[in-house]
Design goal:
Order of helices and strands: HHHHEHEEHEHHEHH
Number of helices: 10
Largest sheet: 5 strands, mixed
Strand content: 15-25%
Structural class: alpha+beta
Oligomer: single chain
Helix content: over 70%
Strand order of the largest sheet: 2-3-5-1-4
Radius of gyration: 52 Å
Length: 342
């Protein structure tokens, strides 16, 4: 505080000297020199630092000011809702939600509809919607969704940014004050060097000010418009909310399985009838292949039988010709024996 007082006192004395020299009727150059000296001296004694000092004072008293503003103004709350719902008519539900959001003054931030099928051939459609609804109408919108669909999961998140918002506003006000004082100094600056120095400082202040104002606008949008994430699934039957008894669950499970079996039979019949042309072509190809294989097998068997028959015939001829060839040999053997005895 003592150092800051000395700086302020020095700046005041420099300004007083400049005014005194001007009042004494000095020449234009002397007056200009005195004015420049006053500006330069003021800069040396911390005129440029005064807005920063104001910011420090604002920060020092920030706790008290912030507490007062929090108590006097409404709180800044960012609300986010997540809903998982079921519906029997997806198109109608999506249309009702869009109309409700528009009617409340909100807007659809994103929308995605998925059309698919399950393994059994049944339709499996769903939609994902991100809606921005005015915070004052959030409860009305959620009640409308709950009244037209079956809610399977619901979560609500509230983020209180009141203190952060107040601090940012305080910093914005300090930067605006600093911008105003720099503009005043820029008007009194005469040399190019002084003008460039002040303009550089002014550009930094304005850049920071724009960044803070953009952040404030973003916070205002999040506070004024709550975000609702909707996951909608199209179903044949709603998921029961209340817990069922064991017998009820067994009966329901039996009926559901029976229904699944019936649907499987119907799906098979539909598949079979729709694929009859292909099945006929496939059957014809199979029959042709079987006939070809059978003809090959039969031909092979005939060749084998014919070969065996030829072998039997050859063997029979050999057997029939064998005695005639051995008779002379048997007749000669006694002769050889008799000759030996002689």
């Amino acid at each position: 505080m003592k150092k800051r007082s000395v700086r302020v006192l020095g700046a005041a004395m420099a300004l007083f000297m400049g005014v005194a020299l001007t009042a004494c009727g000095s020449s234009g150059d002397s007056a200009g020199s005195a004015k420049y000296a006053a500006t330069e001296t003021a800069a040396d004694y911390g005129v440029y630092e005064e807005p920063a000092a104001a910011m420090e004072m604002a920060d020092a008293s920030g706790a008290t000011d912030s507490q007062t503003q929090v108590n006097d103004t409404s709180r800044k709350l960012i609300k986010t809702v997540n809903l998982d719902t079921e519906t029997e008519d997806l198109d109608q539900t999506v249309s009702l939600i869009e109309q409700k959001v528009t009617g409340l003054g909100g807007y659809i931030e994103s929308s995605n509809i998925n059309n698919g099928t399950t393994y059994s051939g049944r339709s499996s459609r769903s939609a994902s919607i991100t809606a921005r609804v005015p915070a004052v109408s959030l409860d009305s919108f959620v009640d409308s969704v709950e009244g037209n669909t079956n809610i399977t999961r619901k979560s609500v998140n509230v983020d209180d940014i009141t203190l952060t918002y107040v601090d940012i506003e305080s910093k914005r006000n300090s930067l605006r004050t600093e911008e105003k004082r720099l503009l005043e100094i820029l008007e009194s600056a005469e040399t190019v060097e002084d003008i460039i120095t002040v303009e550089d400082k002014l550009a930094d202040v304005r850049y920071e000010l724009e960044s803070i104002e953009s952040q404030i606008r973003s916070y205002d949008n999040l506070v004024d418009y709550s975000t609702v994430y909707l996951n909608i699934e199209e179903v044949v039957k709603f998921t029961p909310v209340e817990k069922e008894s064991a017998f009820s669950r067994m009966g329901k499970g039996f009926m559901e399985n029976l229904s699944d079996v019936g649907e499987a039979i119907v799906d098979f019949l539909v598949w079979f009838v729709s694929h009859i042309p292909g099945l006929i072509v496939f059957a014809i190809v199979v029959v042709i292949i079987v006939l070809i294989i059978r003809a090959i097998v039969v031909g092979s068997q005939k060749k084998k039988a014919k070969k065996m028959q030829m072998m039997y015939q050859a063997a029979a001829r050999n057997t029939a010709a064998a005695p005639t060839n051995q008779a002379p040999l048997q007749a000669k053997e006694p002769e050889k024996g008799n000759d030996g005895n002689k």
